Amino acid sequence: MTTAGSTASGALTAAALPSSRKLAIIPLPARHVRQWEGDVVVFDERSGETHVLTGLAADVFERLRRVPEDITALAGWVDAEHPELELDTHIALGNIVGELDRHQLLQRTLPSDSA
Amino acid sequence: MPDAQLATLQTALRTTGVVLRIGPFLIRLRSRLESVASAIGLHYDRQILASDEAFCDFHVRLDRSAGLRGIWRPQARFFLDESSPFKPLPLSQAYPLFEWGLNWCIAQHGHRYLMVHAAVVERDGHALILPGEPGAGKSTLAAALTLCGWRLLSDEFALISPDSGLVTPLPRPVSLKNESIELIRNRFPEAVLGRATHDTSKGTVAHLKPPSSSVDLADQGSLPTWLVFPRFTRGARTCLEPLPKAHALLRLADAAFNYSILGARGFEAAADLVDRCRCLTLQHGDLDETVDRLNALPADLP
Question: pTM of the entire structure?
């Protein structure tokens, strides 16, 4: 079981992504994603792992679950939705995308794939 | 139990064995030990079935260890299907060994339930689940609440059905340890406690007989309403605080014996339970104050 928040520090993984690729959350059964009080709990049947996402990480997870986006568009969405964010958006986003990558919850598509 | 009945029980334990219905499980117990017979007669008198019951989940035997060592240091050994999964313990600990061995049997084989290490009591159709590590005070709270009129569902396991979400009762004696024994005895003089066993791995242990009313309702499951994680702190004031549900789910999974084994079913059962319940942490150090606070828990769902 893991917990990911919005303030964890780590490598700037997102900066290394080809910006043309869209990020999306892997398909998950609805019963394996639970939301309470702004937190998200995800069960990954492949690994048997349970992940807790809080704060901005939970918001980014939900956004990418609904709308596959490239990192630039995602950063724009974060700036618009979270003007109160004190961290640099790209650093915060890099940490969160890195965390979602480590949990293998992300998939990447070319723009034409999701058209 | 009257002497004549106890003698009959001893004979059955030595020969055919005695079948006990404990919640959803049937246990056939054989033993030649008088201490086991008297404890079974005290605690399980309403759960003894006819010994010709064909199917049993567990075939258990408790007897003296064989060999020379048994002459100068008598020991008791627990057998499941005639194999012994544990090291023997001093003979004086034979009955606690039965209870601990039965815990092991259930934890190993009860995978049709999500099994959480927790005490469970119920009031007016609402179950209160108290998960906790040893020392969290869950048995003491379960004993006190039961003696204040709550129904005892379990001291050790919350057996949660993944399909219905109901907690299945497992009414067994409540295992009290060390200072809790005198605390309960003094606070509730009417409590029926078995003989204390000293110098066990948990210190001194004595078992509280479950109320007849709890045993008689053993086939009636209950919907969980409150999920409260207790922590005993000596001398502390009672403090009940909301626990975010995501964190409650992680703590529930940590307290479950088979969360990983059940995979998706385990997650779904745990998440449904958390979804349904009011989730709280409880710091406690004063039994009367804590019982008052738990008695006042509102049943309205979040």
Answer: 0.91
Q: In a 3-state reduction of DSSP, which class is residue B203?
A: strand
Return the residue in B114, B163, B249 with the most chain A beta carbons within 10 A, the one to mutate for interface testing. B249
* Sequence-distant (≥ 6) Cβ neighbours of residue B22 within 8 angstroms: B44, B47, B102, B170, B171, B172, B218
Residues from chain A contacting residue B275 (CB–CB below 8 Å)? 34, 36
ipTM: 0.85
Q: Of all residues in chain A, what percent are helix, strand and coil, respectively (each to 5)?
A: 40, 25, 40
Beta carbons of B268 and A45 less than 8 Å apart: no
Min distance A20 CA to chain B CA atoms (Å): 34
- Would you call A21 helix, strand, or coil by DSSP? coil
Output the CA angle B257-B262-B264, nearest 5 degrees.
Answer: 130
pLDDT digits (tens, 9 = 90+) for A14-63: 444 556 789 999 999 999 999 999 999 999 999 999 999 999 999 999 99
Give the number of other Cβ atoms within 10 Å of residue A14's Cβ.
Answer: 22
Q: In terms of CA atoms, which chain B residue is nearest residue A30?
A: B268
